[in-house]
Design goal:
mainly alpha; Growth Hormone, Chain: A; TM_effector; Major facilitator superfamily (MFS) profile domain-containing protein; cell membrane; transmembrane; 426 residues; membrane
Length: 426
């Protein structure tokens, strides 16, 4: 068996630029979400308002996802990503304007709140396009034999940005306030736009350019629902994230349960991403291909346990530890899921498959935020989190019982086959 090269994908210049762009965008997006959460809860003191933030993003993201996947498969990926980042920049600038001290002091709270919700709604539309575009672009930058390594580095970059974005958001809110924190976010989006210009345009690999939308969407859905490995991974992660979305309630835990303020909130919010980033760095040297199904099930089970511990904890550092470990096992889940998608998706269908992924997993973050907000309103914050973790454990048990083929999923041979296919070209 050939020696594992943990830096294989990093040997491609455009992939390094791609990682820089992805880091800047995820950093800006995650920081923006945290700043919005803090601002909205500070204005309303209502946990349901946090759930509404997620709902405002998930409605357009889900409703336009399939159409976005069709467009991504029909268009050139680099230019499409430029348009997505430009759209995000406009939204972040709008939030910067809405947080102006003069507007905050003169406008009614409800009016500012509606403006924030509207911009978050527009952000959901942008997100519906940006996920499939990024997923498709990776496959055009690196050869197939290093897709798993590229997926690992891409996910690691995502997590690193998710570590620093929330952490900086907490400290930034404390040091320079919401308004100038929004300015920092806008600056990162502009940086991403400039960096992206260093990546060349890519060919369109779809042989069915101009295919009717309905036929295209039908083909994409048929592929996803007919591929058990993809369907199983997406379903498991969707339900786990949906019911384990305790992160949406962190402003409440920080302010009313743990009493740690903005700095502690930033640490809590960053803890899962730190754990995930460390796990992902490790996975570049110790790949997760073998027995992928079992590893994914164990990872999601561990995630559920950590969420329950976090919900019951009244100690700040125990809560941080629970979130840290939850991030580590969630990182394993993310890497395995992305590897499954990269290895089993044909090039001409990447946009549509990624759009279904965004509906299943990406949007479940916002639906999970809404579910957490509603259950916190109905049964209390701590009970809501424990309930979510328990539902995650039940989901893992049911998946392992009803789907032995997914439980026994192994990607090792498929990875080796891709390496063998590429060998004569070297």
């Amino acid at each position: 068996m050939p020696k594992i090269d943990p830096y294989a994908a990093l040997r491609f210049r455009e992939f390094n630029i791609f990682l820089l762009v992805r880091f800047a965008m995820v950093f800006a997006w995650s920081m923006q979400f945290i700043v919005i959460e803090w601002q909205v809860y500070s204005m309303t003191k209502d946990p349901l308002s946090l759930g509404i933030i997620g709902l405002m993003e998930v409605i357009p993201a889900v409703s336009t996802a399939l159409f976005a996947g069709h467009i991504v498969d029909q268009k050139e990926k680099r230019n499409l990503l430029v348009k997505c980042i430009f759209g995000f920049s406009v939204i972040s600038f709008g939030l910067f304007i809405l947080s102006l001290p003069s507007i905050v002091s003169e406008w009614q709270t409800q009016k500012i709140l509606y403006g924030i919700y509207f911009l978050v709604f527009l952000g959901g539309i942008v997100r519906a396009f940006i996920g499939p575009t990024i997923f498709s672009l990776i496959a055009l930058i690196v050869p197939k034999k290093i897709y798993p390594n590229a997926a690992t580095w891409s996910s690691t970059t995502w997590q690193m940005a998710a570590v620093l974005g929330p952490a900086l958001a907490g400290f930034s809110i404390s040091l320079i306030g919401v308004h100038w924190s929004m300015c920092v976010i806008f600056g990162f989006s502009v940086f991403a736009l400039i960096s992206l210009s260093q990546i060349a345009k890519k060919p369109i690999l779809n042989p069915k350019i101009g295919e009717p939308v309905l036929e295209s969407l039908k083909e994409g859905l048929k592929f996803v629902f007919g591929t058990k490995a993809i369907l199983g991974a997406l379903t498991l992660d969707m339900i786990a994230v949906l019911f384990g979305g305790a992160v949406a309630l962190l402003p409440i835990f920080a302010q009313e349960v743990l009493h740690v303020g903005a700095e502690g909130f930033g640490i809590l919010r960053a803890a899962p991403a730190v754990g995930a980033a460390l796990m992902m760095f490790g996975s570049t040297r110790f790949p997760l291909h073998k027995n992928a199904g079992k590893k994914l099930l164990f990872a999601v089970f561990g995630f559920g346990i950590c969420i329950i511990v976090f919900g019951l904890s009244t100690s700040f550092w125990l809560s941080v530890a629970a979130l840290f470990i939850s991030g580590g096992v969630d990182g394993i889940s993310m890497i395995i899921r992305q590897t499954i998608l990269q290895l089993k998706t044909p090039d001409h269908m990447r946009g549509r498959v990624a759009s279904v992924n965004s509906m299943f997993v990406g949007s479940s973050n916002e639906l999970g935020a809404f579910e957490s907000g509603v259950t916190a309103k109905l049964m209390g914050t701590v009970t809501a989190v424990v309930f979510g973790g328990t539902m995650t454990l039940i989901t893992v048990g049911l998946t392992a019982f009803v789907s032995p083929s997914f439980r026994n999923l192994d990607l090792q041979k498929e990875v080796e086959d891709h390496e063998a296919d590429e060998l004569p070209k070297q």
